[in-house]
Amino acid sequence: MKILAVDTATEACSAALMVGDKVFSRWEEAPRDHTRKILPMVQAVLEDAGLSLEQLDAIAFGRGPGSFTGVRIGISVAQGLAFGAGVPLIGISTLAAMAQGAYRLDGAERVLAAIDARMDEVYFGHYEQVAGQMQLVGEEVVSHPDALVEARGKQAGRVTCVGTGFETYGESLKGLADELVTSQVRFPAAVDMLPLARVAWLAGEAVPVEQATPVYLRDKVTWKKLPGRE
After folding, report:
1. Running DSSP on this structure, what letter comes out for residue 59?
2. Which residues form the signal peptide (predicted)?
3. 3-state SS string for 94-105
4. What is the number of helices (H) and of strands (E) in the chain?
5. Among 44, 130, 141, 165, which residue's beta carbon has the most beta carbons within 10 A?
C-alpha cells in the first residue's frame, strides 16, 4: 500500500509517505509559508521512496479543522496532485492526527485534542485508542472553553491533552479531566495521518478528487463586528 499524506491546516507544514511498512516524512513549523514548502516536501518523500505520484494508491490530506487559509491550501494541493496522478483522496481530521501523534510519541490511550480557533473558541475532539487507532468519542466541535467544560463534564483519571487550545485556554480547559497530562504534540503531522488513512482506504472511504471536502466546523468565518454593525 502506497499512501501520501499532506497537511497545512495549522502552523505546521508536513508531508509523509507510506510504502508498505516503510514511512518517509518531512515536518516543519512554518507559519504563513505553507505554499512555498509543501510541494518540495512532497517531492522529497517521493524521492526518498523512489516513487512517482502515479504509483500511489491514494493521497490523504488534513481536512481540518484549523486555519481557514491553511485548510484550503492543503485540500487544493492534494486535489491538484491527485488529479494529475489519477488517484483518490482521503480526508483526515487534524484533531485525530494530533491524537494519533500522542499515541505514537507518548503511548497515550485517551486524548483530548484542542486547537486554538481564535475568537475565544477552540476546535475540540475526544479520542480513545482502539487497536492502535485513535477513534473519536462523540463529535468534534467548536466551542468557547467554558461552555465546552460545562457541556462535556469531567473525565475520570489521567487524560493526555494535545494542541494549542490547551496552551491558550489551559486554565479553563483543566476542568475537562481529573488530571491532564500535557503531550509534546502541539500540531498535527502528516506521518500520523498515515495509519488513519490506511484504515480509511481499507474501509473503502477514499473519494474521487471532486468529492473531497474540508471540515471547518464553523459554517462561516465569524468576524469581529464593529460597534453598531450587524
Report:
1. E
2. none
3. HHHHHHHHHHHH
4. 6, 10
5. 165
